[in-house]
User: What shape does this take?
Amino acid sequence: MNILDKLRGRTEEQKKIIVWAIVIVFGILLFNFYLKAAVEKIKKEGIEDIGSQMQFPDIEKMINDMPNPGDIKSLPSGTLPFLKENP
Assistant: This one.
Protein backbone atom coordinates (compact mmCIF):
# COMPACT_ATOMS: atom_id res chain seq x y z
CA MET A 1 0.00 0.00 0.00
CA ASN A 2 2.97 2.29 0.43
CA ILE A 3 3.41 2.47 -3.37
CA LEU A 4 -0.23 3.48 -3.84
CA ASP A 5 0.13 6.25 -1.27
CA LYS A 6 3.16 7.58 -3.13
CA LEU A 7 1.20 7.56 -6.40
CA ARG A 8 -1.75 9.36 -4.85
CA GLY A 9 0.53 12.20 -3.79
CA ARG A 10 1.78 12.84 -7.34
CA THR A 11 0.28 15.23 -9.88
CA GLU A 12 -1.76 14.00 -12.83
CA GLU A 13 1.09 14.76 -15.22
CA GLN A 14 3.52 12.65 -13.20
CA LYS A 15 0.99 9.79 -13.07
CA LYS A 16 0.62 9.90 -16.86
CA ILE A 17 4.39 9.81 -17.31
CA ILE A 18 4.64 6.77 -15.04
CA VAL A 19 1.85 4.95 -16.88
CA TRP A 20 3.36 5.69 -20.30
CA ALA A 21 6.78 4.53 -19.11
CA ILE A 22 5.27 1.23 -17.97
CA VAL A 23 3.41 0.84 -21.30
CA ILE A 24 6.58 1.53 -23.31
CA VAL A 25 8.67 -0.94 -21.27
CA PHE A 26 5.96 -3.59 -21.62
CA GLY A 27 5.76 -2.96 -25.38
CA ILE A 28 9.53 -3.29 -25.78
CA LEU A 29 9.45 -6.60 -23.90
CA LEU A 30 6.65 -7.97 -26.09
CA PHE A 31 8.45 -6.84 -29.25
CA ASN A 32 11.60 -8.56 -28.03
CA PHE A 33 9.71 -11.85 -27.54
CA TYR A 34 8.16 -11.45 -31.02
CA LEU A 35 11.58 -10.96 -32.64
CA LYS A 36 13.04 -13.97 -30.86
CA ALA A 37 10.13 -16.13 -32.01
CA ALA A 38 10.42 -14.88 -35.61
CA VAL A 39 14.18 -15.52 -35.73
CA GLU A 40 13.68 -18.98 -34.26
CA LYS A 41 11.01 -19.81 -36.85
CA ILE A 42 13.23 -18.63 -39.70
CA LYS A 43 16.12 -20.74 -38.40
CA LYS A 44 13.84 -23.75 -38.00
CA GLU A 45 12.02 -23.63 -41.34
CA GLY A 46 14.52 -21.80 -43.51
CA ILE A 47 14.15 -18.53 -45.36
CA GLU A 48 13.12 -20.22 -48.64
CA ASP A 49 9.92 -21.69 -47.19
CA ILE A 50 8.56 -18.39 -45.90
CA GLY A 51 7.63 -17.05 -49.35
CA SER A 52 5.67 -20.18 -50.23
CA GLN A 53 3.73 -19.95 -46.97
CA MET A 54 2.67 -16.37 -47.77
CA GLN A 55 1.13 -17.52 -51.08
CA PHE A 56 2.79 -14.93 -53.29
CA PRO A 57 1.99 -16.90 -56.48
CA ASP A 58 -1.74 -16.47 -55.76
CA ILE A 59 -1.29 -12.71 -55.46
CA GLU A 60 0.63 -12.62 -58.74
CA LYS A 61 -2.16 -14.58 -60.45
CA MET A 62 -4.78 -12.17 -59.14
CA ILE A 63 -2.80 -9.19 -60.41
CA ASN A 64 -2.30 -10.79 -63.82
CA ASP A 65 -6.03 -11.61 -64.11
CA MET A 66 -7.07 -7.99 -63.51
CA PRO A 67 -8.28 -6.15 -66.62
CA ASN A 68 -6.17 -3.36 -68.03
CA PRO A 69 -7.64 0.14 -67.75
CA GLY A 70 -7.83 0.33 -71.55
CA ASP A 71 -10.03 -2.79 -71.66
CA ILE A 72 -12.92 -1.25 -69.70
CA LYS A 73 -15.01 -0.59 -72.83
CA SER A 74 -14.72 -4.26 -73.86
CA LEU A 75 -16.22 -5.52 -70.58
CA PRO A 76 -19.79 -6.87 -70.73
CA SER A 77 -22.49 -4.30 -70.03
CA GLY A 78 -23.62 -4.23 -66.42
CA THR A 79 -20.18 -5.17 -65.12
CA LEU A 80 -19.46 -1.61 -64.07
CA PRO A 81 -22.90 -0.05 -63.54
CA PHE A 82 -21.49 3.13 -62.03
CA LEU A 83 -19.81 4.09 -65.35
CA LYS A 84 -21.97 5.83 -67.89
CA GLU A 85 -21.48 4.79 -71.48
CA ASN A 86 -20.40 7.59 -73.79
CA PRO A 87 -22.81 8.14 -76.71
